[in-house]
Amino acid sequence: MLPSYYTVKGYGEHEIEIQKSRFIAYVQRAETEEEAQDFIQTIKKKHWNANHNCSAYIIGEHDQIQKANDDGEPSGTAGVPILEVLKKKHLKDTVVVITRFFGGIKLGAGGLIRAYGKATTEGLTATGIVERKLMKIIHTTIDYTWLGKIESELRSSEYQIKDIHYLDNVKIETYVDEAKTDDFTQWMVDLTNGQASFHSGNNLYLESEYTS
Predict the structure, then answer these.
(1) What b-and-e string marks burial along 57-69, b requiring 16 or more CB atoms within 10 Å of the CB?
(2) For residue 210, is pLDDT > 90?
(3) CA atoms within 13 A on the CB side of 49
(4) Collapsing DSSP states into helix, strand and coil, what is residue 206?
């Protein structure tokens, strides 16, 4: 599993107009090629009457699956520019479809490349990009008398609470950078006068909004 990577927040869409042609960007996260293809086909069915539904996607930890489709536009003027934007932004597990309704004015090869690139960039901005960082889940068990103090301290700290289980004791699951697990547990020990116990859980990705 990668220590961290960038992807899109989820589904998004954004429309621009260039020389009377409408370009509608559709964006989605896709972790398999099948998911990407299903999304492309969904948009094609939605806009069956469009002049073009061009697409591109990057999937896999090491970008091992990369596809681009011009869908009838001149070769290299649509799918590749979409893909290049994804690569430039270092995105993974992302699929983009740009639907074009021709407005009657030809843009030429250079104009098409710029238009599809711009539509993709603005579509990604509208959707939002997140960083997914691999974190260790630390389970902290405390007595109920410590709950108010510990929860308050956690919520005002760099650490993020994943869940709280109210059982015989309180069990708090917290996302912790693996390099900081010792610091975290020592901090909990200090806050509870040594009355907290711990065990390490799974590694999970924590998402945070990314602004370039």
Answers:
(1) bbbeeeeeeebbb
(2) no
(3) 0
(4) strand
pLDDT digits (tens, 9 = 90+) for 47-79: 999 999 999 999 999 999 999 999 999 999 999
Residues β-bridged to residue 160:
175
Enter the tokens of residue 138: 């630390």
Distance from C-alpha of 59 to C-alpha of 202, rounded to nearest angstrom: 24
Virtual torsion, Cα 172, 178, 182, 184, nearest 10 deg: -40
pTM, full prediction: 0.88
Q: Please determine, for residue 212, whether its predicted confidence score (pLDDT) is greater than 80.
A: no
What Å distances lie between residue 107 and 19, 36, 73, 103, CA to CA?
8, 28, 11, 10
Q: Which DSSP string do the residues of 140-190 spell out, in sequence order?
A: EEE-GGGHHHHHHHHHTSS-EEEEEEESSSEEEEEEE-GGGHHHHHHHHHH
